Amino acid sequence: MEYKLLTRQTPQGPRAGIAVGDQVYDAAELTANPAHSQMLSLLDDWSTVDALLAGMDGVPDNVKAEPLASAELLAPILYPGEIWAAGANYSEHIEEMAEGSEYKAVNAKTISGGRAWFFAKTSRSAVVAHKSTNPLPAWSDKVDWEIELAVVIGRQAKNVKVKDALDYVAGYTIANDLSARDFAARPGIEPDSPFRFDWLSHKGFEASCPMGPWIVPSRFIPDPHKLGLKLWIGDELMQDSSTKFMIFDIAEQIEEISARVTLHPGDVILTGTPAGVGLTRGRFLKPGERLRLWIEGIGELEHGFD
Question: Are residues 92 and 154 in the same domain?
Fold first, then answer.
């Protein structure tokens, strides 16, 4: 049985759901485990849940369904434990950001010292849902977009090697790594100062990580490095690329992070963005605009600003 994982609002509060075709079922009812009413608890038991659902021929008649189209979707993981974001992980994005600089002709892996490079985004404050509308930060005039394939961890991972790394992935979703470009560095601070970069304002602000609309289990994504990605503002296509252009693939990213910290079920890795961001266009997000982010095999995330 093919299915997707989601979180939806119900009269009892947020509950994990399983989407099969155009219907949604309560995850705890479908798995007969009350703990699976919440996504983090479901992911804590991921191997068992995945085997159970994938082995079903269909949904039992006694499990109540809700049309997917009418479900009020929340972010699939309301409060990820950690969000790790890969910086400068598409060669074309490095080229557009380095236009006219000394880095233009340098091999992308050389720039990072041959290792994937990460920063952390805030979790509970940053993650917002499909179809949500949120204010832009009042203190920034240059909020930018970045479509990213988001990896959801399904097993505790520590010192994982590349050859085994994808076994620790529960599934994939879509994220927008919103960035306040006018706060990447603090003005008036010397370039070699450790206080120069302002990561909280630049990447970790409120509602800076729209995510969703659901998680597609990894068993249904045969190769996450062959997925098309597109981002539109209104009807204007801004980003159009493929995950095949990642510099460090997903397994390499998991190896790098898990060598430093233990990854837990429900942690999320944002895997980098391709070319087409606003900074190189001199074009930034405005109140009233809506964005659509599409990744092949997953679907479409929509969100906007007021």
Answer: yes
Same domain, 13 and 142: no
Q: What is the pLDDT at residue 95?
A: 74
pTM: 0.94
CATH number at residue 142: 3.90.850.10
Domain for residue 212, yes or no? yes
* Highest averaged pLDDT of the listed ranges 75-79, 89-93, 198-202: 75-79
Residue 226: CB partners within 8 Å, gap ≥ 6?
Answer: 242, 243, 244
Q: Centre a 10 Å sphere on the Cβ of residue 287 and count the other Cβ atoms it contains.
A: 10
Cβ(284)–Cβ(183) below 8 Å: no
Q: What is the pLDDT of residue 199?
A: 85
- Whole-Å CA distances, 7 to 24, 210, 214: 10, 14, 8
What does the chain come to in residues?
Answer: 306
Assigned domain for 78 exists: no
pLDDT at 98 over 70: no
Q: Taking a C-beta distance cutoff of 8 angstroms, is the pair 132, 210 a contact? A: yes
For 11, the domain range is: 4-73
Taking the CB of residue 68, how many other CB atoms lie within 10 A of it? 19
Residue 240 pLDDT exceeds 70: yes
